[in-house]
Amino acid sequence: MNQMAEMTCVLCPGDHQVEVATTAIEHPGPGEMRVRTMASAICGSDLHHYRTSQRVRSERGWSQYAIGHESSGIVDAVGPGVHYPSEGDRVVVFGLLGCGHCKHCRRGEPMFCKGSRHFSRHQHGTDSAYLVAPARNALLLQDDFSFEMGVLLSCNVGTAYGALRKAKPSGDRILGVFGLGPVGLACVLLGKAHGASVVGIDPSADRRNLALHLGGDEAVDSAASDLLEHLEAFSGGDGLHATIDTSGQPSARGAAIDALRVHGTCIEVGVGHDPSIAPSEQILFKEITIRGSWLYKQYEWESLVEFVRRHQIPIENLITHRFQPEDAAEAFELANTATSGKIIFDWSQA
Do 135 and 23 share a structural domain? Predict the structure, then answer.
């Protein structure tokens, strides 16, 4: 790619370190767009990079790229052959990179592409003043949605939406959300919009309070010795209709299954450590359904946006902290404590 002036970005060497740096701004190539970033955010998956050793990140070539995969901004240039989007369009950048040609990509499901690539591993990620990405990754952000709302929709709220479509919350169903980070909190917020009774489960008192502030009916300490008894009582004695685990923690994954009633459904969203599961006891004898849910599909974008608009869901309330890019080290330190809601970077002045 041809290169021009320099831009600010956030690199992640690893070992709980990030650093603000400058790198060349790239021109978009054929089929690509360049987006002037207005807002980006820290995702739980970014913390996997943050906690990885410098040696491993360096050996794999990841340290050279800006971190992040959540952003919204304004298209400021497009490459040859691009008819959509146009310069000046407000967009969210879909956070996974597929080949664009296989059956999964053509369906709007690039997460299943065998040739998939990742921001911050194979090219610069979204914590950068400018982002070059395939034009097909552009998701139009309507004028009634702020750039901060766009960032929330781009991953956390979208991931919650995709999981909830599988969990099927409604006014006559009881939902348990294990892990009250930004994705889990979004599950609480959207689950209530569906009319469900929602209980949140997390070891952090701060995050449990956030869940209640967002409309959750109850919030329980995941470390409580009587957790399952508490959830059974909350359900009226039969168990929960559906659970969503966003934590990826073995104990939570097991409890998310055990808390279900007969014919219940567990949706696994969190990426983490594998639990030990007894299929006969935990799954077979109650005819439990376990499903995975990875992000959301590109074809779900319009329905996601319309759901938030129609129900006037205050997704901005998920944000608890805002930082300038130059304060990235402080922002990541806070995110690593697992006590906050969503952390946003404002790139409008960068």
Answer: yes
Is 306 within the bounds of a domain?
no
The whole-number pLDDT of residue 350 equals 83
Q: Judge whether residue 274 has pLDDT over 80.
A: no
Region 45-71: mean pLDDT is 95
Helices (H) and strands (E) in the chain, counts: 11, 17
What's the pLDDT at 4? 59
> What is the tens place of the pLDDT at every residue in 281-298?
888 889 999 999 999 999
Nearest to 317 by CA among 342, 338, 347, 344: 342
Tens of pLDDT, residues 74-107: 999 999 999 999 999 999 999 999 999 999 999 9
C-alpha dihedral, 152 to 123 to 66 to 42, nearest 10° = 20
When divided into structural domains, the chain yields a total of 2
Alpha helices in 41-83 (DSSP H): 44-51, 54-59
The answer on 123 and 7 residing in a single domain is yes
Contact 199, 227 (CB under 8 A): no
Query: What CATH number is attached to the domain comprising 110?
Result: 3.90.180.10
pTM of the predicted model as reported, rounded to 2 decimal places:
0.94
Q: Does a structural domain hold residue 131?
A: yes
Q: Say if 151 falls within a structural domain.
A: no
Q: Same structural domain for residues 53 and 114? A: yes
The CATH number assigned to the domain holding 170 equals: 3.40.50.720
Instruction: Render pLDDT for 158-197 as a digit per residue (tens, 0 to 9).
Output: 999 999 999 999 999 999 999 999 999 999 999 999 999 9
User: What pLDDT, on a 0 to 100 scale, did the predictor assign at position 282?
Assistant: 85
**Host domain of residue 107:** 3-141+314-346
Q: How many whole angstroms separate alpha carbon 46 and alpha carbon 120?
A: 9
Q: Is the dihedral of CA 31, 125, 149, 271 positive or negative?
A: positive
Residue owning tokens 């999981």:
163
* Distance, CA of 88 to CA of 164 (rounded, Å): 33
